[in-house]
Amino acid sequence: MPSFAYTIAGSEATGGAGAQADLKTFQQFGVFGAIALTCIVSFDPKNNWGHRFVPVDPQVISDQIEAITSAYGPDQLQTVKIGMLGVPASIERVAQALSEREYQNVVLDPVLICKGQEPGAALDTDQALITQVLPKATFVTPNHFESERLSGLEHIGNETDLIEAAKRIHDRSGAAVLAKGGVRLEGPDAIDVFYDGTTLEVLREPKVGEHVVAGAGCTLAAAVTAALAQGDTPLEAARRAKRFVTDGIKARVTSQAPFDVIWQGAVQA
Ligand code: PXL
What we know:
- There is one protein chain.
- By secondary structure, the chain is α/β, with parallel strands linked by helices.
- It has one domain (about 5-260): Ribokinase (UDP-N-acetylmuramoyl-L-alanine:D-glutamate ligase, 3-Layer(aba) Sandwich), CATH 3.40.1190.20.
- The protein has 8 helices and 9 strands.
- α2 packs parallel to α3 (about 90-100).
- The longest helix has 17 residues, at about 235-250.
- The protein binds 3-hydroxy-5-(hydroxymethyl)-2-methylisonicotinaldehyde.
């Protein structure tokens, strides 16, 4: 039997990010994946590839989680990943559903703001995510922007700042933290910082180009999720995920869209 994990995430239609990236990543790890879909994002090529966003009815989110957790009991399914939730009503439902079962691993990719949302709505969303879901996370994977928001640091410009942010986010959440610097920090390496309250490790790989590759963040968190589902420690999961994402970025695909997309299929994890 494979290990099992499910993702509570949005669809990004072109297959770069979101639930699609999660499922592809799980598959490469040999982890059986399921999806509770929270929203549908369709890029708009007529409008600078901005996000068109439609939330899934909160009841339908609960129904999907009910189906998944009823099919796979607590012994079989102990790991869940949380990606884009979108609106406060969805966040409330997901928080409720998470409290109905004990999980060994709750991996939160704290997708705070989605382009195309009203700033006001986005603020509500951030607040709901921080108060209702962050306390349930065992592992959290903020990107550069989310690390600033969650740590309260105004500007994360280098490795020292990112380390401080990871520590603050751990202190606030109690979760293991993998704070993603990616290409956004100065220097030749793509740096991510792992901190779980005792172990601090800076993961580094030479940058592959200077541009953000779509789906890299989702894939990193999904790879952490898959590795944890297979019994890795949080630190080992972070190391394996970093290697997997680096390989996927090296194998990235181009399209008519103005950004490259990670390809998880090049390397079996
Ligand atoms: O990369 C963040 C993200 C997560 N989930 C969905 C998305 C995106 C970004 O486009 O569309 C569904």
